[in-house]
């Protein structure tokens, strides 16, 4: 059945995600801080654009969101122009932003106070996954709200799962980022080692990718890392933002994350080299620079 929905935030993830909702037959109203971007989306997919989160949300049964960080999320939900101010009683807010678990719990409580529902539903799969409708969605929140949102999330997800109460989705996304950080650093070190050892790195990858060392990062990023191309999606700035949430949560819950903390510092080196907008596989760049100095 067609629903009236709104989508807040039309970045590289939100733009195609909102498009999948429109293509599935839902009536979508969008909001973006840059009105030109919202108009571009309307020109491509139809629907309507609103001048504020509040106006976008006022007639929606479900409000979707994918913005940048905790502060951005609070900006589009709270205050006179925030979505919560105009959402109808019983409406569901689905947040796809990667944030802290703390802000997810805060907004869940505020939504409940207003007679609304809020679920945290960060995604994995990057820009390509969003465009192809093949995202993985990790969800925290009340079971009834998650059940209502599930069919629409299915418009752009190949996998979605409720993992617990409010904040559980964000905690699961932190687990995801911990895994990725370690894998990319290991791949960067392996490729640099192969080069220093005089091996054909691509030939080595072709062999070991058929064995126990295989990973998504190896399959999709090893070749471009060898070529020195780093314009394939998730930027270093965003990864450091995510790892900041991870390390903060670890300090709170007592988890020991020595590798993650170290990789976060390596990403700071990439930033210092001008790679803030390079993708996360650029961890190999500082290693190559160190090799040249030896």
| Total beta-strand segments | 9
Q: Looking at the chains present, what oligomeric state does this protein adopt?
A: single chain
CATH topology of the largest domain: Rossmann fold
The CATH homologous superfamily name of the largest domain equals NAD(P)-binding Rossmann-like Domain
CATH architecture annotation name of the largest domain: 3-Layer(aba) Sandwich
Poorly predicted ranges: none
Q: How many domains make up the 3D coordinates?
A: 2
Characterize the overall form.
elongated
- The amount of helix comes to 40-55%
Q: What structural class do helix, strand and pairing data support?
A: alpha/beta
Order of secondary-structure elements: EHEHEHEHEHEEHEHEHHHHHH
In whole angstroms, the N-to-C terminal distance is 64 Å
Largest sheet: 6 strands, parallel
What would you report as the Rg, rounded to the nearest angstrom?
A: 20 Å
Q: Taking strands numbered 1, 2, ... along the chain, how are they ordered across the largest sheet?
A: 3-2-1-4-5-6
Percentage of residues in DSSP E strands: 5-15%
Total DSSP helices: 13
List the helices and strands and how they pair.
Elements: E1 4-8, H1 14-23, E2 27-31, H2 35-45, E3 48-49, H3 53-57, E4 62-65, H4 70-77, E5 92-95, H5 101-113, E6 117-120, E7 123-124, H6 126-132, E8 135-139, H7 143-153, E9 157-162, H8 168-196, H9 201-208, H10 216-227, H11 236-253, H12 258-272, H13 284-293
Parallel strand pairs: 1-2, 1-4, 2-3, 4-5, 5-6, 8-9
Antiparallel strand pairs: 7-8
């Amino acid at each position: 059945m067609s629903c009236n929905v709104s989508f807040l935030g039309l970045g590289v993830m939100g733009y195609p995600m909102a498009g999948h909702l429109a293509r599935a037959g839902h009536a979508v109203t969008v909001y973006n801080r840059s009105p030109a971007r919202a108009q571009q989306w309307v020109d491509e997919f139809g629907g309507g654009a609103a001048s504020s989160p509040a106006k976008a949300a006022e007639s929606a049964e479900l409000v979707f969101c994918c913005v940048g960080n905790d502060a951005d999320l609070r900006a589009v939900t709270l205050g006179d122009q925030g979505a919560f101010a105009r959402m109808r009683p019983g409406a569901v807010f689905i947040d796809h932003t990667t944030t802290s678990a703390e802000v997810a719990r805060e907004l869940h409580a505020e939504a409940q106070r207003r007679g609304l529902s809020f679920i945290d539903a960060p995604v994995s799969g990057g820009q390509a996954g969003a465009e192809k409708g093949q995202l993985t969605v990790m969800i925290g929140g009340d079971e009834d709200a998650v059940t209502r949102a599930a069919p629409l999330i299915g418009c752009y997800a190949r996998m979605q799962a409720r993992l617990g109460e409010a904040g559980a989705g964000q905690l699961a996304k932190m687990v995801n980022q911990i895994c990725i950080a370690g894998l990319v650093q290991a791949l960067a070190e392996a490729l640099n080692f192969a080069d220093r050892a005089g091996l054909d790195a691509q030939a080595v990858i072709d062999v070991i990718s058929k064995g126990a060392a295989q990973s998504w990062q190896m399959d999709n990023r090893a070749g471009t890392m060898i070529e020195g191309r780093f314009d394939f999606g998730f930027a270093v700035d965003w990864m450091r933002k995510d790892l900041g949430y991870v390390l903060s949560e670890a300090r709170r819950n007592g988890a020991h994350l020595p590798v993650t903390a170290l990789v976060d510092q390596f990403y700071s080196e990439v930033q210092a080299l001008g790679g803030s907008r390079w993708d996360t596989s650029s961890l190999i760049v500082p290693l190559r620079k160190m090799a040249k100095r030896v």
